Fold:
Amino acid sequence: MRFRIAALLGIIMLCIFPLSIDRQEAYGQSTQVDSARRALVQAFVSVQEADLEGASPAQISQLADNLNLALSYEENATRLGSNFYANQSLKLSDSASLEAQSVANAARAQTLFDQGSAYSLSVVAGFGSALLVLEFHRLNDIARKIRLRRIRLE
Amino acid sequence: MVPRRVIVFILLFASFSVVYSSIAYYTLSKPPAQEFMAWGVFSPGGSLSNYFSGSEANVTVGKSLSWHFAVTNRMGSIQYAQIVYRLGNSTSVSPNATVSGDAVPQLGNSSIFIPNEQTALMNFTWSIASSISRGGLIFLNMTINGNQVTTSVGAVGGQRFRFFFELWTFDVASNSFQYGYKVQNSRVGVPLQVWFNSL
Structure:
């Protein structure tokens, strides 16, 4: 009797074991795909930030190509339940995200430099213009002197 | 006592600096632009008409139709766009500028990242694999972009089916796709639809 119960329990365990392995594998795949999706969204946020910071259209276009490739890997991972594609997508998204952050920093620095240069030039030009207006009569004097010198030489 | 010339110089310097700084600010500022997204469903011939290569919108079982979407982004920054497709019939509630067609079941979707001021093309290749008659209605088994899809909306005699196409964009604040695109504090939906009959 005891042997029968033990055998029955053994058979039930054998039946349940593959199911639990399948479920764990499915859970693992789903986790990988979820991570790939999160990484893709994070990469998109970084690229959008770089875009708004003033990165060049060529840089954004190249980053968008990488995002679209990562998206196609993520879609394959979802459709095929493949961890390989999920990992490829995750790697590509992470590298796009890092590149976007570096592009955003460069764009931010460039914008600051451009603004600094433009406003400095405005102040210098303002100084020059004020000086020119104030000392304009001296320029007339200098021009007159030069003209006189030429006449004398002739 | 400060000499008069110095006061005049300071006044002139300040005035010129303000004028030149204003010019610099104007030059550095982005010109204001209306943000929008535009899109269309194009036939194999690349036009917005003649989707079925004939005057009638009849689609026979097994006939493959290769359409494509062209989505233009003028939102000022890169967008994560998604096109959602649904199949309805003549009595289905249509999506509009504010509400999506959630009442009609979704057949699938396609997503893409589109940089600002660029137009992205997305394929939409579909065919009717088979049709089933049930309760006086015709239901379709379709293949869309290589995926098998069974529809849950039927049409009387297979007539007047409608594809609803909706443009959704990813909203960073809610971390999800939202219907339409964002303009200031509201969202604008631009749904499209194409009628066809199943033969």
